[in-house]
Amino acid sequence: MTQFKTRLNRRLALAIAAAGLVSVMAWGDGAKAQNRITSQEAIQSLNSTAATATRIGIDTVALRDDIVTRIKAEGTENSAGDPPVLDVLKGLPTFIVQVQFDLDSDWLRPESWVTVARIADALHHPLLAGNRFLIVGHTDARGDRLYNLELSERRALSVAEILISTFQVDPNMLVVTGLGEEQLFNRDSPDDGVNRRVEFINIGPQ
Amino acid sequence: MRLCAAILAALLLAVPLSSQTATAQSMSFGEATEVWADACTSDINRHCKGVRPGGDRLTACLAENAGPACSAATRLFQENRNARLAAQANARDACLVDVRRLCSNFREGQARILRCLMRDENFRRVSNKCRETLDTAGWLDTISVRAN
Question: What's the complex ipTM?
Fold first, then answer.
């Protein structure tokens, strides 16, 4: 009985915590990137209750080829807009987190491990079992576009490495890609740190 | 700051958290990592900056260089992580009898069976072994039974 009460109290505490954080919850379009998340938020955001998370084929090699072609064709320092090839990803359950890397580095700072750990909690929950997740790295607009594309891939890979090696997330659940500076979070402030982020997108069952 | 971290780590090692029972439960990965990062960030930045976790490289670097507070927090992190992973792997077996008795008509997937077990009318009849395993796995509290 005591245990049951404890469980209820903890559920209540979690509900209160979730309510307090609801204003910063990340849900697809218009979402705010964040670094203070709870596992519960991650589960809710990534849960494929929506019909949108049907099985979809994501060809990350083709995606990258399209983006490289576009960067070379435009030949400009900054992209003209979001690559149309990414439309397929819009509307899928997405969770955006801000994790901190040193400048020009793919090494995740220890303080950001907490955020990744909470994602790991979510990925180990039965509610998300059997789904695959696209981990998408992004950079801000400083520096060369092609270089940023490669840096964002290494950063996404770095996050995946922690999920797999430290938290034993099934590698088959994860697909890693980078979009460099091609899909800025805030196009009005292309150099803003808010653009440096990692997105987790539920792309449906394995 | 390091002293605070050492005291915190010592307290966490010595006594269970107030919300925990003595027999089961584990900190979530997020909670355990928060304690670890508080205790270890300065040691990592000093001795292991740029070392990645794959292949246990970071663990090896910390084993060689970390101070007592970070070492204690690392052990605490590993104990909690391992307990949680073990409970998650063991949950199916630990709850087998309960699932057959209470939720045999539920299909797997979308946490249907877990949500069935967590219904109040079922949860009070769930065995202690199953309950404690689910709790240590971190699978109680985090979802609503009314979720789709």
Answer: 0.81
